[in-house]
Amino acid sequence: MASSSYYVTTPIYYVNDQPHLGHMYTTIAADVLARYGRMAGRDVFFLTGVDEHGQKVQQAAKDRNITPMALADQVVERYASLWPELSISHDDFIRTTSARHKESVQAMWRRLRAAGAIYKGVYEDWYCVPCESYWTKIQLKDGNHWEDKQCPDCKRNLERVQEESYFFRLSAWQDTLLKYIHDNPDFIAPASRRNEVLRFIESGLHDLSISRTTFSWGIPVPDDEGHIIYVWIDALSNYLTAPGFPDEQRCMHYWPADVHLIGKDILRFHAVYWPCMLLAAGLPLPKRIFAHGWWTVNGKKMSKSLGNALRPADLLAKYDVDVLRYFLLREIPFGQDGDFSEDALVRRCNTELSNDLGNLLNRSLSMLKKYRDGILTPASTEEAIDRALIADIEAMQRDVDAALQQQAFHQALERINALVRHGNRYVQENEPWLLAKNNKQQRLDTVLYHLVEGLRLICIQLIPFMPTKMAAMLHQIMGKPVDLNAIRIASIGGWGLLSKGHQCLAPSPVFPRIG
Ligand code: ME8
Q1: CB of 265 closer than 6 A to ligand 1?
Q2: Measured in angstroms, how far is the CA atom of residue 97 from the centroid of ligand 1?
Q3: Does residue 330 lie within any of the structural domains?
Q4: Could you read off the pLDDT of 340-389 as tens digits, one per residue?
Q5: How far is CA 94 from the centre of its chain?
Q6: Is 501 exposed, middle or buried (0-12, 13-18, 19+ CB in 10 A)?
Q7: 67: domain CATH number?
Q8: Nearest atom, ligand 1, residue 14 CA
Q9: Model pLDDT for residues 115-167, shown as the tens digit of each residue
Q10: Are both 51 and 111 inside the same structural domain?
Q11: Residue 363: what are its φ and ψ, rounded to 5°?
Q12: CA dihedral 56, 57, 59, 63 (to 10 degrees)
């Protein structure tokens, strides 16, 4: 990654429900990218937040007999206190009820209107409240959803809407957007989602109703206050508000976003409506939109009615935060669906973290303590087996960088794990206990040095995934506490930084086995 700005976002989460595993997942993924970007020397802006407006939130508040604002305040508190517990290092947290956001959304509206992209008409079709999504009769007929009047996405009942509405000329951008997606193969990922978006656009874009008059919980249309701006226009604009819109100069320091991380449920809003809005407003498009897959729990969709949504607090009461972070990104390829099972989590922790990584740390520092009282001596000569280890470490650093540029978290972790296994093989093959017994002191120094220096570089690559655990491991390796925020790969990511006489601590277990 070159030294420049790096802007990463999560969706802003609805406040009609409490945070669950799915919200944790996207936010942890974004956190890994943000932390890695900072370590790579980039000027990172990591944004998350909450989506507080819309009919769905208004209804949820009504069901609880409180105002939408009171509901939003309660749920925001949950998110705000959860993120530090998950070691989320966001730079900004946006609320769509904030004054800065209202100003930004209304400025966006004026800009679209001035560009001729908005007109007034009457909306007479169908609306899905849970998805906050419009469906025309034509779309429902196309997909054989006309008979049952159910949302093609979430299969819940649609509402009939007939009201005066402003429209956004979405149809005007169909060809431009198609061409853009064809010309920019990295714009939407993974490829399966890109194809889905292409198919959707090819089926024809209809103008989009973007205001409602039948409820009040939202941002009013400028100069026509009886109309409330469609919640998705409101929500998507958050990505511009946070970096400073409508102050365009300030905003452009970070905009366009390097990557919007989202779940596959909200792909169409991000990969169709949002780019068209930006095109109409004459603003640059985000560089990439990555729609990840869906977690189920023991094979079932998480839902309020089933009461099976996994709550972060329950998971954190049982498992270490870094083990959770690791598991979520290691277990399934980002982009694919996956099932959360505690058995799988325990298995991964006990094999890859305790047996492999924990063991490599423990045996390396134990031998260093036993044979050298914790003091390192760099190699005077290297053998092929040593050079192979160093070459593998350097290749791993390149591979991890490439994987993270593609948001392939599982690949990055698999690659690091392969190196950990290499480290353990290196111990077996060199048999340091025999070197000690046979008085091969120089060779013993060389082997111990390669192990500890290799571990140091492994830990650095793992910091974005498991910051607290890696701080603990690096503390033992460096012999003193490390400031993770100060770590830059360019200055400490090279081989051979530990110098003669460097003192490590005696090992203490970092990944206790579970169960
Ligand atoms: O859609 N598996 O908010 P939301 C994986 N406010 N990820 C999941 C998940 C699951 N089972 N469930 C939720 C909204 N997610 C809008 C977004 S953005 C301008 C507005 C994650 O609270 C995933 O990131 O319904 C998904 O896209 C998001 O939560 C939806 O959160």
Answers
A1: yes
A2: 19
A3: no
A4: 999 999 999 999 999 999 999 999 999 999 999 999 999 888 999 999 99
A5: 16
A6: exposed
A7: 3.40.50.620
A8: 22
A9: 999 999 998 889 999 999 989 887 888 777 888 889 998 889 999 988 899 99
A10: yes
A11: -70, -35
A12: 130
